[in-house]
């Protein structure tokens, strides 16, 4: 995410530097210079919107992927716990059957 932040900061810094240089070196009238500045700001705004949109898409995709991975991991965990519970129950039933046999021998 810092890469996207750096990109956005670079775009803003580039726009500011470009606007400052444009104002300092402008041989045009003030109205033309203001129009150029407005055009530059509009371009910077569009670039920023595009960058934010792309960042939003990437984050949304990563969040969706992480959610799906978490769901899959949770399902696997439940399945494993269920299998282990079945194994424990089978083991305990076997031991109970053995104890019943031994108890039956002692009762005779």
TrEMBL record:
Keyword Mitochondrion part of the UniProt annotation: no
Statement: the UniProt record of this protein carries the keyword Lipid biosynthesis: no
Signal sequence extent: none
Residues spanning the membrane: 6-26
Top-level taxonomic group: Bacteria
Pfam families: YtxH
Keywords recorded for this protein, A-Z: Membrane, Transmembrane, Transmembrane helix
Protein name: YtxH domain-containing protein
Lineage: Bacteria, Pseudomonadati, Bacteroidota, Flavobacteriia, Flavobacteriales
């Amino acid at each position: 995410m810092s890469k996207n932040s750096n990109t956005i900061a670079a775009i803003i810094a580039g726009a500011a530097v470009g606007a400052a240089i444009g104002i300092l070196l402008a041989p045009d009238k003030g109205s033309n210079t203001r129009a150029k500045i407005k055009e530059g700001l509009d371009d910077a705004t569009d670039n920023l919107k595009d960058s934010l949109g792309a960042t939003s898409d990437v984050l949304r995709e990563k969040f969706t992927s992480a959610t799906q991975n978490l769901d899959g991991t949770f399902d696997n965990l439940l399945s494993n716990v269920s299998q282990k519970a079945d194994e424990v129950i089978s083991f305990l039933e076997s031991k109970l059957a053995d104890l019943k046999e031994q108890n039956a021998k002692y009762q005779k």
